[in-house]
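Annual report, structural modelling task.

Input specification for the zinc ion complex:
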Amino acid sequence: METEAEKDQAFSSTSLLSAGGVLVAWESGAFIVVPATPQINANPPRAVGDGVMLFIAVHELIHACGLSNGDHNPDDLFSGFPQARAGNKRQDDKLEVNQQKRLPPLFLTTKTAGVIQALWK
Ligand SMILES: [Zn+2]
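The model returned the following structure:
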């Protein structure tokens, strides 16, 4: 059984990646905070493409569904440590999970989908 302190810890703050978003939630509400212009380490560094921004937004919305950092899954868009891969153009930028899968296109594994489904029965 999770104590109130553990619940507060799990939902007090979660983070996606250094240039990504953060969900700050408490008993009566939550904020999703994302950088206005996330940067990618291209040469020179520049704003990420829309696909990476969508990844960040959807990842944080999954946190808003109630999943914590402990639910991160290295195999899908709910990865806690996706690696940025700059494309030649902004629209080709990707985030890599599990050292081989590059997103977008966005996808969830059945494991992550199952965690969401269990919370929203
Ligand atoms: Zn996360």
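The beta strands are 14-15, 22-26, 29-33, 39-40, 46-47, 83-85, 94-97, 101-103.
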